[in-house]
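FIELD: query
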Amino acid sequence: MNQEFTRDRMLSGLDRKFDVLVVGGGASGLGVAVDAASRGYRTALLEAHDFAKATSSRSTKLVHGGVRYLEQLNFSLVTEALRERGRLYQNAPHMVTNLGFVVPRYKWWEGPFYGIGLKLYDVLAGKLNIEHSRQLSREATIEAIPNVHQDGLEGGIMYHDGQFDDARMAIALAMTAADHGAVVLNRMQVTGLLKSDGHVSGVTARDVVGGRDFSIEASVVVNATGIFSDAVRKMDDPDAISMIEPAQGVHLVLDGSFGPGTNAIMVPHTDDGRVLFVIPWHNRVLVGTTDTAMDHPELEPRPLAEEVEFILRNAARYLQREPAITDVLAVYAGQRPLVHRGGTKGSSKSISRSHEVVVSDTGLVSIMGGKWTTYRQMAEDTMVHAVAVGDLGESPCVTADLHLHGWIDRDDPSMPTDHVRRQYGSDASALDELAAEEPRLGESVHERLPYRGAEFAWAARHEMALTLEDAMARRTRALLLDASASIEAAPLVASIMAKELGHDEAWEAAQVREFGELAGGYRLLS
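FIELD: result
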């Protein structure tokens, strides 16, 4: 465990010039920070809010190749994603697990049609494949996904992809970067770009917590702000053509009884031509997602009523026990940073899902688009340009085989088996020691949540959680697992965090109020 992953320590490291300065603490920015720091470059990452605050904590929780892109014949995108899926499966065994997906068959021709496609999926994965796909009989399909709609069911096809917890992965990446010497800070708002002789030479930034302003020099600045990338590009050049079109994806969280067993359902065609997933996750079931073009990026997007209705309607076609709006424990929305070249807009399904690196005339390097699964390749591609722009001197990329913070061999008997402690990997034993320090740290914070007080104390002490939201939404997933229960647990958690962070009762009360207002947006029914 890195005992020094604290904000005070990170702030003290800002008084120097960096080789690489990354703006943005989501998947792409954290990936670049890990890549740069592990090569030996002096690296800093500044996040205006919290790590994975926006899109990167609101995904479908899959490390996957993208089965639906096979139908579009986008073999290069699938192959890249499958390769990166395999690497992440190896480099973060405590984070990424094997998840079986079943495509139910209701027509005879679906067997060979989907079967051939999924065999190709296996072939494209090569030696990094997780497990081979196979045909299932009607009986085996029902056994694998017991809540599947059974009328007319002929059988199914099972394939395998990876599953993870996106926000916990973000923390693992932040700590991995710090383990390799990077300065990593949340609540550090970049307010402008420094320039020298017409070249971007650093940033100005404000510490949102302490109110202090900084001027930070760097050989190269990387813009990795996801859906907000255009705003940073326009800090550099007000006339820059917008390249990001946000597309909203919504997920509903249901009780685990809607997906009994350990396998997911993949619905290959919904009303709008997308796939729909019904996925077991943290003893709950995720159902999603939608694909709605949005006019502008939002930090806290809200689901549209028609998106919720779309998910419930399409899920009901494939589930024997149909979910109703009253069954939804939480709903969350995220916005994908889809890339277009500006000037022309189209449906979000037609815009590129791949990533693009753009270097401005002044040397600002922007990484845009992509997805969680390919974050490592995105970072490597970004660093090719960053090294050249910053004239850093060549140092090879080592992330293809780099173990992430908390790594434990998948077959090690010390690997935690429960879904909460497993995310901490090699830190789990220290977490358990913390739980033994006082009674309330070893006790559950709420009967409908899988967390002890220790997870929240740990978040404040070791994972740079500064607010109740940080701890409830991202260091743990309490908000997503049950929004109402998280609101009910908020006073206890605030008390635990206040003790760790040295705050008073007024801080606790303000945090409970602010979190309650936020969490209300994750509930469909009051």
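FIELD: remark
Confidence is low (pLDDT under 50) at residues 343-350.
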